[in-house]
Amino acid sequence: MKIKSLLSCKIILVLLLVFSESSAQQVKSLDKRKFIAWTVDHMPYHILVEDAIVDYNTLNTLENPRIKKKKGDKKLPILKEMRADDLLIIVQQKKSTKNEIHEIWYGNGLNFDIIPREIVDWVLSQDIQEALIEKDQYLNSPSDVVFFESENQRLLASYSSRFSLWKQHNFLLSTEELYLRSNLLQYSANFAFGNTLVGLPGTLFGSTSMGVGTRNSEIGIRFPAKINLLSLGDLKGDKLLREYLGLYSKVTIDNMFSTGASFHAQMGFSFFPRSSTIASDTTFFSRNNIDPKDRYVNIIDMYALFAATFEAPVKIPAISRVTFTPGLHYMKVAHRTKDKDNKLYNRTFYGYDYETNSYNRYGDGDKSSTKEFGLYGRVDLMTEIGVVPKFLQQYEFLDFININKVPLFEVSLQHITKLNTITSVAANINDNVSFSMTIYSGAENGTVEGGWLPDKNLWLGVRYRSDF
Fold it and tell me: Mean pLDDT score of the chain, rounded to an integer?
């Protein structure tokens, strides 16, 4: 346990020493006290502005015979065409009494083209401006991009956290999940193979989840499917029963109470047959001819996580962002015995102690389930976005690394008292593909006795993200 903790600290220390601090390029920004801004996520409105820019350019080219130029007329600028995957940000004055747009920003999240106030009326009709200003009528999200003073701030704002339910890209495929987001509807679909955030990666989660999400919430079904990709250890699969359906839900509230912190909540439970018959000793196994692999099985009855994420006010060389996520964790595990007819029996013990000639029992000896609250803590570190250290650039065999909008390394350390510690290191080789390594360390004298979780394990991971 101490060796693994030391290894995790060494990994983080190496990453801190490898990188050098770089200066952030200044960009145009607006005063947050005077303006409000939001991103247009509704694709029909996005297309509407795309077409409006094309029409504007067509009407103002010199080759257009319908335009009669007069001597002394001021030439209107030709605008860069908006791409389908560009961010579209609307800026309005806070104290404006007119239904008009102050500026329109569009770009890739780092570099933006800006349509100023004096050109907006040439591009968009008054009806279109009023429709865009009525942001309660379509899918949108608050944006601070126009208020940032450096490129790094813009890139960090566009980079999704692990708790985000509305991903940065509309397609994500990894060894942990498959995420699909519609460009027309305000919904997404998510298939998850485990849940690392609640301390149960891979098949330790007891199920595979499939749900439908919005920007701030997700709800779905937990169904029995054993999917455990690139796991390099023994997960004691015979002690965790994966045969029953369940439900789960997730909620995220960004910038809670305007504090800059984000609130996260997750909850899930399983449906399984209840039983009044109790297996209180090993003679029950012989009397009922119980298969050895079905004698000590466990079911994740319920889990819950309540946490808040905030960016730490610290500056570390080569690290662009440090986030802390404290919270509370709850888990209830049902202890059962299963016969050959798949009937379940409540089990109040998890073994026999031959030194004391007594059974090892849960709680006071009459409990067939374990409930436990634990403290939750998570730290996430990101190296500087788009920066590859110079000493790595000297090696030709690493020329395949080409990052612009992502950090080279992402490191996380997650600890749940009496359950486990999970350390993860991810390396991005380009803006779309990354490889990761996740180290699992079980807690001694953990929440649930009986050795139903592994003492250690290692997962390798691959992630691909893109926009379609």
Answer: 84
- Among 202, 161, 169, smallest CA distance to 188 is for 169
Long-range Cβ pairs for the range 183-190 (8 Å, 24+):
183/43, 184/43, 184/44, 186/41, 186/42, 186/139, 186/214, 186/215, 187/212, 187/213, 187/214, 188/212, 188/213, 188/214, 188/218, 189/213, 190/218, 190/220
**What CA–CA distance (Å, rounded) separates 202 from 225?**
11
How far, in Å, CA of 128 to CA of 176, rounded?
Answer: 42
Give me 296's structure tokens. 């000590």
Longest dimension (CA), the chain: 106
Residue 159, sorted as left (phi over 0), alpha (psi -120 to 50) or beta, turns out to be beta
Distance CA 164, CA 156 (A): 14
In the chain, where the domains are located = 2-21+157-466, 35-67+80-143
pLDDT tens string 266-277: 999 999 988 888
- 184-204 pLDDT, tens digit per residue, is 667 899 999 899 999 999 888
| CA torsion, ordered 105, 107, 112, 114, to nearest 10 deg | -30
C-beta of residue 264 within 8 angstroms of C-beta of residue 252: yes
pLDDT given for residue 406 in this prediction: 87
Distance of alpha carbon 346 from alpha carbon 111, whole angstroms: 61
Q: How confident is the model at residue 64 (pLDDT cuts 50, 70, 90)?
A: low
Q: Is the pLDDT of residue 217 over 60?
A: yes
Give the list of residues 6+ apart from residue 20 with CB closer than 8 angstroms, or none. 317, 318, 389, 390
In sequence order, what are the residues at sequence separation of 6 or more whose Cβ sits closer than 8 angstroms to the Cβ of residue 143?
Answer: 37, 38, 39, 87, 89
To the question of pTM greater than 0.90 for the whole model, the response is: no
Q: How far apart are CA 76 and CA 55, in angstroms?
A: 13
Contact in structure between 426 and 353 (CB atoms under 8 Å): no
% of the chain surpassing 70 pLDDT: 87
Contact 234, 454 (CB under 8 A): yes
Beta carbons within 10 angstroms of residue 162's beta carbon: 16
